């Protein structure tokens, strides 16, 4: 059963203000995004982002081994791209299966054949699991390389590895070690961030490109004495200069929706603007994402909880409010070279959402 604002009559977004008096005038609910996954219990955690499969009887390891695995994984990719992030409870999936799933999500939703799992530039710091897995740890490494204590929590908002010429489509994080309380993760919707802008501002942003820079990882590697990985999952992701230029508004090829594609973690400069103008626009967009809590979802992890997100059209940030060990493993898949299709539609346009 699915409990979703888009699927259930009483929660249909068009009806929020008028449900009791105007049932008869409601537009039909848009199609479900679940496809073959509708056989499992799921619920949407907020209107704009986040769907959860709360029952641990739903195991991704079983889905991977099922006779219609490809159909279910393709539907999962669609669901993740539509809802931004999808959560699973108490997963027994192995690391090898997690990597396979990350690769298949993109493969079955049309990524280029040359796009494999990402090898993080500083993954040499965790050689024991394989270069295509990132350990996400409170002790150090990838998740801590850019972290500065005593800055605002909102400084942490990012999408993964956007400094790559071929950045990520999907990422899967499974948490195996958690503090008793704290260490939540938040995600925000890039689709809804775009949809909240005025038509004039949308059009302005659609003409721009931005530089994304991950060279702080190079500094971190130097400081800790390990080399930079210079071949990173795609023939285009090579070398040790971790910068790329991408469109500011990007089309997600799975949904066809427009999304804002700049993030506080990596985006440094809008190419077509003066430095002052660029700072001003980027500051506005970063605040737009971090200050609109009505297109964010906050997730409290449970033991062996797992999240899958679409890095093309969401942002995320961890919550640094604990001091025990917190650890998980992440697999990041590479997608397509980011593009903007001027004929693509926004999520609100396509789904007829008007709340
Ligand atoms: O620690 C977290 O909750 C998220 C870390 C992160 O940014 C990631 O896994 O990509
Ligand atoms: Fe991340």
TrEMBL record:
Source organism, top-level taxon: Eukaryota
Keyword match Oxidoreductase: yes
InterPro entries for the chain: AtsK-like (IPR051323), TauD-like_sf (IPR042098), TauD/TfdA-like (IPR003819)
GO cellular component, one term: cytoplasm
MF terms in GO: 2-oxoglutarate-dependent dioxygenase activity; metal ion binding
Pfam families hit by this protein: TauD
Domain TauD/TfdA-like: 44-324
Keyword Secreted (UniProt): no
Keywords associated with the record: Dioxygenase, Iron, Metal-binding, Oxidoreductase
Cited Gene3D superfamilies: Clavaminate synthase-like
Stated family: Belongs to the TfdA dioxygenase family.
Protein name: TauD/TfdA-like domain-containing protein
Species: Jaapia argillacea MUCL 33604
């Amino acid at each position: 059963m699915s409990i979703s604002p888009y699927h259930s009559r009483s929660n249909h977004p068009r009806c929020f203000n008028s449900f009791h008096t105007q049932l008869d005038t409601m537009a039909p609910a848009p199609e479900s995004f679940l496809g073959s996954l509708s056989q499992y219990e799921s619920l949407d955690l907020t209107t704009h982002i986040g769907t959860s499969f709360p029952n641990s009887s739903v195991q991704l390891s079983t889905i991977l081994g099922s006779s219609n695995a490809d159909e279910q994984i393709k539907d999962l990719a669609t669901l993740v791209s539509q809802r931004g992030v999808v959560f699973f409870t108490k997963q027994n999936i192995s690391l090898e299966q997690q990597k396979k799933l990350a690769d298949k999500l993109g493969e079955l939703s049309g990524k280029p054949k040359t796009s494999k799992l990402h090898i993080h530039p500083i993954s040499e710091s965790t050689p024991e699991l394989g270069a295509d897995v990132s350990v996400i740890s409170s002790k150090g490494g990838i998740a801590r390389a850019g972290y500065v204590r005593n800055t605002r929590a909102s400084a942490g908002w990012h999408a993964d590895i956007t400094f790559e010429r071929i950045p990520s489509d999907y990422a899967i994080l499974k948490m195996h070690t958690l503090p008793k309380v704290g260490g939540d993760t938040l995600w925000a919707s890039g689709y809804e961030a775009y949809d909240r802008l005025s038509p004039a501002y949308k059009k302005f942003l659609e003409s721009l490109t931005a530089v994304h820079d991950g060279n702080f990882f190079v500094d971190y590697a130097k400081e800790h004495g390990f080399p930079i990985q210079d071949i990173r999952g795609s023939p285009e992701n090579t070398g040790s200069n971790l910068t790329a230029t991408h469109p500011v508004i990007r089309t997600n090829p799975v949904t066809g929706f427009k999304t804002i594609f700049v993030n506080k973690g990596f985006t440094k400069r809008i190419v077509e603007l003066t430095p002052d103008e660029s700072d001003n626009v980027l500051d506005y967009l970063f605040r737009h994402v971090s200050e609109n809590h009505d297109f964010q979802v906050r997730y409290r992890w449970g033991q062996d909880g797992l999240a899958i997100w679409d890095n093309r059209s969401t942002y995320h940030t961890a919550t640094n409010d604990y001091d025990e060990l917190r650890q998980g493993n992440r697999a990041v898949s590479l997608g397509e070279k980011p593009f903007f299709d001027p004929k693509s539609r926004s999520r609100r346009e396509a789904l007829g959402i008007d709340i």
